[in-house]
């Protein structure tokens, strides 16, 4: 049965349609893998009863000829998505015991499409982190290893549990969210595909907010075809979300021809950064040559404000986080600190937040409150907003000049060891987002595709950035890159 969990969404869909397997069998195979994989720390709230109930319903839909592409497909849901009656903590102590009475739009759309929820997945607390080390549940662990070295590696963050679960074949796919690279970076670290859609493509309703102008949900899958299938099920207009785009969602899978002849691929000079590992540089060059060999034209481009992206991001994102997280005060839901005799509401706020928020969340809330405060608002937040507009204009100018997609590295390194980036220097951790944050600041679609292994046998990813609302063309270019790279490596099972 374990081989069933190794299927892609497309393979499973076709076998389900042919009645070679049932959704119940597929779900039971994934549940067995999950039970044997606690060492990965990927699943934090398991929902086998819900999974089997939905699998039986999926089999009935298939038998009735009413199946959709995601019907019967077992998936994991990141703990940031509210799921009715199931703990939804955003990996934070402050939401301990919170069981929503409603379902996020994205998880509801997947359920409506017949997908099977296996449980909730680990993540960095409130999606703040690049290594899945800030979670109240403990670390998620990358299923990959450096050769024979037994050092536990990060699966990336914040969607580390999602990436680990998909790479280890605990589920066929998973939801992720991306505020500054939190789908694409963990996908690159674990050898899977991660799609961050255009801002507004996926509803944010029912997803615990980090930075509202940057957050975007997306699929984390084993292949580009799977990202096209699952992405289409997740996207669509939602009147409950004022930032949701009222645009039709194309059949992305039908657009996967692999034909990119005549497409123009931009290679931005600003992404060639000092100290970039030679393996990353070489992979980037190889990826460009693969696309050229597939018929694309390569064009050197400039995105001159790239160097300001990280500082701008780490002003805007904490500012929005400090505002969004103000609602966690111990009054209405979640954790409330025990109060001493004579404590008032101010003491309740202080103690609840001190106990409920972890160090990284506290750090970002404090930074955000500082840059929004009187006297610093113009110096930091307003200036960062202006830089953001310039970064977006850089991309607009490039696309207006005829570039169809932009190729960059996905991460500045392969996965690093858990605990190797010292808490004393959070800036080193923030630098993991150096290639990804521009995409969020500009609201563009981006995808990470596994393209090779480093000298220690760890996966490396390449990133493609597309025109706004043009996920179909972006996925097709990614499909061509995936076909050329031929990445089929899997982590050796140790868990």
Features:
single chain, 495 residues, alpha/beta, Amidase signature (AS) enzymes, 11-stranded mixed sheet, 11 strands, 13% strand
User: Segments where pLDDT lies below 50 for 5+ residues?
Assistant: none
The arrangement of helices and strands along the chain is: HHEHEHEHEHEEHEHEHHHHEHHEEH
**Could you give the order of strands across the largest sheet?**
1-3-2-4-6-5-10-11-9-7-8
Described by strand count, sense and barrel closure, the largest sheet is: 11 strands, mixed
Cα(first) to Cα(last) distance is: 18 Å
Please give the number of β-strands: 11
CATH-defined topology of the domain at 2-257 and 446-485: Amidase signature (AS) enzymes
Q: What's the level 1 CATH class of the domain at 2-257 and 446-485?
A: Alpha Beta
Strand percent estimate: 5-15%
Shape: globular
Structural Rg: 21 Å
Oligomerization status of the protein chains: single chain
Number of alpha- plus pi-helical segments: 15
Q: Name the CATH superfamily classification of the domain at 2-257 and 446-485.
A: Amidase signature (AS) domain
Percent helix among the residues? 25-40%
Mean pLDDT: 96
The CATH architecture of the domain at 2-257 and 446-485 comes to Alpha-Beta Complex
Structural class by SSE content: alpha/beta
